[in-house]
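Quick one: examine this chain and its backbone structure tokens and tell me how the chain folds. Here goes:
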Amino acid sequence: MNASDRADFVAAERERIQLEYHRRAREISPDRYAAWQPASRFMLESRNRMGAAMLHRLDVFPQPGDQCLEVGFGNIGWLSELIGWGVSESNLHGIELYPDRANKAREILPAADLRTGDAAELPWEDGTFRLVIASTLFTSVLDNDVRRLIADEIVRVLQPGGALLWYDFAYNNPRNPNVRGIGRAEIRKLFPALRGEIRTVTLAPPLTRLIAPRWWTLATFLEAIPLLRTHLIAVLVKEGNADSRSLPQAEE
């Protein structure tokens, strides 16, 4: 792909995603996904707990002083969780396509480096980050070439020995053609140079919204059944320095 074709593909996909953001803002109440909603809290707690455990298991849990980036942080993303894990606000970085979301996040985290821009061209030097997070990002990108560009940029800004923390859904939503699920095989194809773990997580959201507000224990029991989990969480490490090691390709 030459530079002109690349710019055209990226611009077209950027415009499509922005139009979809505007549609969702018009048609979907912000309360639906608010963190105080029992269903959202249930999904976030299990996601965050699994992510932390996997980062610890692969010895890439962020340490004080580590520079951490979230690509597509939305309203706040994982950034507040990283602060809870001990990462200083000044060591948090992010890029977000939608300006309104980025502005709200800057108000909450004024000391963080939160930028508005395109994930297909990250404005940081090679090897800047110890941890990069891509959470419900790639499923919103339908163009395969743009997905590839974003993946390449993530690998570029990762330090050798640094990790990608991935969280996204694995199955298509028949009611929403503006997103497309990503399975294990595509994750491996997007990041062939990274090694680590891929696991299932998150009770199917329709079930979670039905059950968690009433029967939290039942939701916890159902989430333990792999067939009822709809998302994948992965920790994938970039090898290439003295700390590199043979990492498993675990699946659940």
